[in-house]
Design a protein that fits this description.
- By secondary structure, the protein is mostly helical.
- It has helices at 6-41, 44-61, 68-74, 81-112, 117-134, 137-145, 149-172, 178-198, 209-232, 234-243, 246-259, 261-281, 285-320, 331-356, 360-385, 389-398, 403-408, 421-438, 444-470, 476-486.
- Helices cover 81% and strands 0% of the residues.
- Helix 5 (117-134) packs parallel to helix 8, helix 12 (261-281) runs parallel beside helix 14 and helix 13 packs parallel to helix 18.
- It is globular, with a radius of gyration of 23 Å.
């Protein structure tokens, strides 16, 4: 294994997490505000169709990569040109084959789900976007190995901005589901151009059998995990589209999207940074253990509070905003999904750490367990609770999310409760008075004031109680800028 400068890696982790989280925060603001606008302009049925078709594309995308890109990121040494070309060529063969078959079968898919012309167009547009996305793999791998997440976030910001801008423009024109189709195509084109400008890579075609076999030893189990996640989530969504009305699938999608907002805002950023970083640290278990603790602290600091704010303000948002009352049936599901997302925010990064140190077979067993539980419990719960049964099943299964933490401690020593308890208490200090305030009245100015009061309470408690733990997450360059601005 090549020698690792742990100080450099530590600074890259902090800088990467800070850059990804702050920029992803901007990205998610764009996404959530835009989604909010779209949920006013479009009906639950249209969202149900979008979620189902998107799930189908996600299902196909899992077969476009057999874990070779992850193997390049996880390997201790820098990838060779031969390895990069082999991975790119293999992926394009898989992607091309999938897209050709999917285009041929697209009319049958439209018939199966009773999609009209625009629904079929959306499916085909997402296939085009899927192909364009596959071209970004190698430039992204090169940036991730260098932990250059400040650069990697730029294409994502451009893609998200373009997608929602075009979707809203077309939705305002009354194009319905086709709004998502045109937005997906534009997103794919912009993303490819941006990533190749930032991380140029000369495309070549060729396959080395020896390289392919070597990378496959890690890649295949890694991709098996991904395929199981696909069966557990996206294939389940496709199944629900056959047994539930589109509107009810829309309720499920709405509840999950809002409940998992903290995961997309915070956890995804941490996982994106820590997988290559943990892989670089796998030779020093003591430092790796401290890195895991820091990750848990950072996640708790932001996830507890943002989830609590969503839980507190979701009802006022629904009742106070015109045309948003249509989402009221999804509130119960939202609460259950929110609880499950809290557990996932801590278990998923630890699963990520297990993968980074090469314990891929262990995480494969965990994923098999979660997949089996999902396919057993969801149909049963839907029978008893209707569409809310999906969230009930997620709530029950979430309790198994503690297993990865216990398993990881067999390989790397780290603390679980000490990094998170302060954030939990600070969240309670914020949530209790905010709940009491909201119980007094629900007029819009009062709700807005209550929100800022809640954020202020948490910010003050966190700063005065956890200042020493928070400061290391702020890169020194930013601290110097703040200090200079105050002088």
């Amino acid at each position: 294994m090549e020698e690792v400068d742990y100080t450099v890696v530590k600074n890259k982790i902090i800088g990467g997490v800070f850059a990804l989280t702050t920029r992803t925060f901007i990205l998610q603001i764009i996404a959530f505000v835009s989604t909010f606008v779209l949920t006013i302009l479009l009906s639950p049925s249209i969202f149900g169709i979008f979620f189902i078709v998107s799930a189908v594309i996600s299902f196909l995308s899992y077969f476009s990569d057999i874990g070779l890109a992850a193997a390049l990121i996880q390997k201790p040494k820098e990838p060779t040109r031969e390895e990069l070309v082999t991975v790119f060529t293999t992926q394009q063969i898989l992607v091309g084959s999938i897209i050709i078959v999917a285009f041929i079968l697209s009319p049958a898919f439209a018939t199966l789900y009773k999609l009209e012309g625009d629904g079929l167009f959306l499916f085909q547009a997402l296939l085009i976007s899927f192909f364009l996305s596959s071209l970004k793999t190698i430039p992204s791998v090169l940036l991730e190995r260098k932990l250059e997440f400040r650069l990697l976030i730029i294409p994502q910001l451009l893609e998200t901005s373009i997608f929602y801008f075009i979707a809203i423009i077309f939705a305002l024109k009354g194009t319905g589901i086709a709004s998502f189709a045109w937005a997906a195509i534009a997103r794919g084109i912009i993303g490819v151009i941006a990533i190749y400008l930032i991380s140029p890579w000369q495309i070549s075609i060729g396959i080395s059998v020896s390289v392919f076999k070597r990378l496959l030893s890690f890649g295949l189990p890694f991709q098996a995990n991904s395929i199981l996640a696909l069966i557990k989530d996206d294939l389940m969504t496709i199944f629900l589209g056959k047994i539930l009305p589109f509107a009810q699938v829309g309720y499920i999608g709405w509840a999950k999207k809002w409940a998992e907002a903290p995961l997309r805002l915070i956890m995804d950023s941490v996982i994106r940074v820590t997988f290559p970083a943990y892989a670089r640290l796998q030779g020093n278990k003591e430092i790796l253990g401290r890195a895991i603790e820091k990750s848990l602290f950072f996640l708790a600091l932001l996830t507890f509070s943002t989830t609590a704010l969503l839980v507190l303000f979701i009802k006022p948002m629904i009742y106070l905003i015109p045309k948003y009352i249509k989402w009221e049936p999804a509130i119960f599901s939202f609460y259950l999904f929110a609880f499950a997302s809290i557990v996932a925010s801590f278990s998923s990064p630890v699963v990520n750490a297990l993968n980074a140190i090469g314990k891929i077979k262990t995480t494969l067993i965990l994923m098999i367990m979660w997949t089996v539980l999902t396919w057993i419990l969801v149909p049963i719960m839907v029978i008893f609770f209707g569409f809310n049964g999906v969230a009930v099943a997620a709530f029950v299964i979430s309790f198994t999310g503690l297993l990865p933490l216990s398993i990881m401690r067999r390989f790397v020593k780290f603390k679980i409760f000490s990094p998170i308890y302060k954030s939990f208490i600070a969240t309670l200090i914020m949530a209790i008075p905010t709940y009491l305030l909201l119980s007094l009245t629900n007029n819009l100015p009062f709700v807005i004031i209550s929100f800022f009061v809640a954020v202020s309470i948490y910010g003050l408690v966190a700063w005065f109680w956890m200042r020493e733990e928070i400061l290391p997450y702020i890169p020194q360059a930013y601290l110097r800028k703040i200090k200079n601005s105050l002088i």
